[in-house]
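Intended use. Records such as the Ribosome-recycling factor entry shown here are meant for training and evaluating sequence-to-structure methods. They are not intended to support clinical decisions.
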Amino acid sequence: MIDKAKEILDGAKAKMGDSVKFLEEDLKTYRAGKANPLVFNNIMVDYYGTETPVPQVASVTTPDAKTILIQPWEKKMIPVIEKAIMDANIGLTPQNNGEHIRCAVPPLTEERRKELIKKVKTAGENAKIVIRNARRDAIDALKKAQKEGLPEDVQKDYEQNVQKETDAYVKKVDELCAAKEKDIMTV
């Protein structure tokens, strides 16, 4: 029965860890005033009838700190990518020269910084919700296992372990969000 409790704890840890990993990847896509090709990971274009992220249909590079260069593998994708960037409203204006698309990264305005910080806080809160849901599911599973024969003291110990893991992951989310906010506010 103790194996069952350990399995429940490990499952909760995995869900919490996945939530933090997802948040880390999501925060990388927020533009913080310097050229970052990852901002295009969430921008989708129609590629032969399939919604595809820009980096899968073009080479996305940063020749300098304030420029992003997008070189599509097929020239007919240039207007499609250009339109997708405009529709995404990420604060970049694409410039097309027939061969590739160049996006100059403007400095962030105070208003845009505040918008990004709101997005960071929302993403952090969503990650915390996933973590808390994993905690709730684990505690419910432990209570169910106790009814099926798991000793009560073992159940209580594992509930405390689940809570410790929850606190650790919530702290990690707070640290990630604080670091991203600091990065966004750095001029």
